[in-house]
Q: What sequence folds into this?
């Protein structure tokens, strides 16, 4: 069990200092590109080691989400953990939480697959059978 993260922070700082030095990133724009690349690589690295590669991922769910935003004037990244449930599958994604009065609230974002199914089921799709005649 990891109890003291100070040593990991020290090693990570040394590693990032070496990365910046080796990259020859001099401008803010170059540092931003390097930062985004490093963050994506680290996330992919841990995701690949947490889940075997042959495991199909067709459903994602959680009870808390992390929102990450990049301020457009400073390019600084901010992360917030929010008590919002998240469900995603081939039909789209659904965010569930509470409004200011504590009542359940949901936002659904439909995928193209779901929209095409709805269009077809409501009779607004192609006037053609999907069955092979």
A:
């Amino acid at each position: 069990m990891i109890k003291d993260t100070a040593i990991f922070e020290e090693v990570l700082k040394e590693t990032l200092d070496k990365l910046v030095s080796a990259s020859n990133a001099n401008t803010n724009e170059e540092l931003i590109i390097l930062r985004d690349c490093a963050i994506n690589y680290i996330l992919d690295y841990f995701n690949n080691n947490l889940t075997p590669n042959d495991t199909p991922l067709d459903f994602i769910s959680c009870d808390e989400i992390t929102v990450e935003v990049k301020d457009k004037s400073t390019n600084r990244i901010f992360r917030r953990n929010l008590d919002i449930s998240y469900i995603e599958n081939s039909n789209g994604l659904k965010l569930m939480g509470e409004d200011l009065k504590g009542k359940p609230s949901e936002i659904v974002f439909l995928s193209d697959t779901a929209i095409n199914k709805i269009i077809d089921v409501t009779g607004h799709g192609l006037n053609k059978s999907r069955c092979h005649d």
